[in-house]
Design brief:
Layout lengths: L1 H10 L7 H12 L6 E2 L2 E2 L38 H7 L7 H13 L8 H11 L3 H15 L6
Antiparallel strand pairs: 1-2
Helix pairs in contact: 1-4, 2-6, 3-4, 4-5
């Protein structure tokens, strides 16, 4: 997360991205790549509109997520294929590549993550849920203090 923060800060110096925000996302999304692993890859559930999930028809012909009918989030930071196409380089399963892409997504739209409003807006851009915002906030705050996420 430190290297990703340096990369994104060089690209978008006014964003104010901090490593602990990326770490908070990594914890919330996949416990840093330890949750949701199947056959060596992290692939989220089918986004077919069932089970409380949104319906997102396939956008990548299954190239990234292996599903030609519906999209699925992938990698340790759970990117949808369309989001990966906008922000990612390399392999969405690789934590280093995914962390840089997550930083770019968070900083999109000239956000200044040093402000509470833009920080919350950035996290909501990732997942618009009050519970998710609280989970990322709490994990990021704990990491900043040198503590475990929970």
């Amino acid at each position: 997360y430190l290297d990703a923060t340096e990369t994104v800060s060089a690209e978008l110096p006014d964003c104010g991205l901090r490593w602990n925000t990326l770490a908070g996302l990594g914890y919330a999304e996949s416990h840093h790549g330890t949750y949701g692993v199947e056959d060596g890859k992290i692939i989220g559930p089918r986004l077919d509109g069932t089970g409380g999930f949104m319906e997102i028809p396939d956008t990548d012909d299954g190239r990234l997520d292996g599903d030609t009918e519906y999209d699925r989030a992938l990698g340790p930071l759970q990117f949808l294929p369309d989001s990966w196409r906008l922000y990612g380089d390399g392999d969405p399963q690789d934590i280093a590549d995914a962390a840089v892409a997550a930083g770019r997504l968070l900083c999109a739209g000239d956000r200044d993550l040093s402000t509470a409003e833009d920080w919350a807006g950035a996290v909501f851009a990732y997942n618009h849920s009050d519970r998710y915002l609280a989970d990322v906030r709490d994990a990021a705050a704990n990491y900043a203090l040198g503590q475990s996420a929970n």
